[in-house]
């Protein structure tokens, strides 16, 4: 989720968490990261999201954030343990970077010669470390989000050839999303309507929780609501979201 | 806390959290990090620990860990916000490193030329980044805990001259604690006794929650219990704890 006003994710997370073992088979752990300014709240758990006490906290405690990345895991590479739960976090240029991956990069272990090393054993964290290494090499100082988008567009095709590589990346200023197989997004803005979750019998009238200036973009691997129009990504598309709007 | 068996901190944290605004004036945020193998659960909040919903979760949900670092903040440098909450986390050599600081390093901003930069504005995170930078330069590969202890003993005096620098550092394998002004520790082992918290009317019979082989070391800035014998650190002392025992 990327927004122009700090927004809570309790509604979306309620549906999303059901996919962690109840309505879907992604039961091998989960995680979520909320930026608050430059700071970060990072929660990971190797219990299924539908049973986790930490997930229960997130559902009930409305943490407000402008950039949130959440993930529920179906283990393809790497054991079910805490260090293999997404999203992963690293610091670069005095900002935290958060990364979550959906997909499988078969036999792709690019060489890591920089200062980022995986702690766990997933293909995903390895790919993230490589991405951070290459970003660090590409810019002497902190680039702006448009420059970062150009760099990512050069780097990402080197992965995407190796397997499925749908990912979310944020540094708290923007959200970058890449689809190699499937990803959908929605931009919610005034006039806000009522949305109905597809994974649980729950609806919300966003008009009651928003102001006319609010803009919220949500990017997902499968639409979370049944009565809204979600836009599919084209294969290979890398999108930039800033302040709740798609910018590139 | 450093132990030989995964142990929960609900008892100690109950007393500790009271110091975050109730029995003490450390009300400018708090944080706690639990290692589980190489993985890490990291919770930070800029609300006082005695009121935080996340602290309430920690008090009730027994997360078991062999290495835990917790901190409640009294802001001396840097605003009250999430990015300034301890403990701080960085990755080095494929391990997470967790750091919390009690004290004040006046006008001490050593040059950061490596790959670690502070995200917030505290003297503490700056010191941590410098420590990580110097550790990274001192060893080509991953050193063992004894080698790391020697390196830390060389590095730490360069800070300690600049102000008060009580800190805790862990990479999930060991806990390093340094006292420049005050720090106390206890090693609990068989036979376990009943302990009474000094900050809340609560006691626990550890014998009921432990096995004879368990060993637990707890290091604090002020003793947490009234009926146990805590050992004070000497000024300038850097201690290493492994498997619930002081090793150096």
UniProtKB/TrEMBL annotation, chains A, B:
Transmembrane segments: none annotated. The keyword Hydrolase applies. Its EC number is 3.5.1.118. The keyword Hydrolase applies. Residues 1-244 form the Glutamine amidotransferase type-2 domain. Keywords: Glutamine amidotransferase, Hydrolase. Gene3D superfamilies: Glutamine Phosphoribosylpyrophosphate, subunit 1, domain 1. It comes from the Bacteria. Pfam families: GATase_4 (PF13230). GO terms for molecular function: hydrolase activity. SUPFAM superfamilies: N-terminal nucleophile aminohydrolases (Ntn hydrolases). InterPro entries: EgtC-like, GATase_2_dom, Ntn_hydrolases_N. This is Glutamine amidotransferase. It comes from Variovorax soli.
């Amino acid at each position: 989720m990327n927004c122009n006003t700090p927004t809570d994710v309790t509604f979306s997370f309620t549906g999303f968490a059901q996919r962690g073992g109840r309505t879907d088979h992604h039961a091998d752990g989960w995680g979520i990261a909320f930026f608050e300014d430059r700071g970060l709240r990072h929660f990971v758990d190797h219990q299924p999201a539908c049973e986790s006490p930490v997930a229960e906290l997130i559902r009930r405690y409305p943490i407000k954030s402008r950039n949130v990345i959440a993930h529920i895991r179906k283990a393809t590479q790497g054991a079910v343990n805490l260090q293999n739960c997404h999203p992963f976090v690293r610091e670069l240029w005095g900002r935290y970077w958060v990364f979550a991956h959906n997909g499988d990069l078969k036999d792709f272990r690019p060489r890591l010669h920089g200062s980022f090393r995986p702690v766990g054993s997933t293909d995903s964290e390895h790919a993230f470390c490589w991405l951070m290494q290459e970003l660090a090499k590409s810019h002497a100082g902190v680039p702006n989000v448009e420059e970062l988008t150009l760099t990512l567009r050069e780097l990402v095709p080197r992965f995407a050839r190796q397997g499925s590589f749908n990912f979310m990346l944020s540094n708290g200023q923007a959200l970058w999303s890449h689809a190699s197989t499937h990803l959908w997004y929605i931009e919610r803005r005034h006039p806000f309507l009522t949305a109905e979750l597809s994974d649980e019998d729950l609806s919300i009238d966003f008009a009651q929780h928003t102001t006319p200036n609010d803009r919220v973009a949500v990017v997902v691997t499968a639409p979370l609501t049944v009565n809204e129009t979600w836009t599919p990504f084209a294969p290979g598309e890398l999108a930039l979201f800033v302040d709740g709007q798609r910018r590139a």
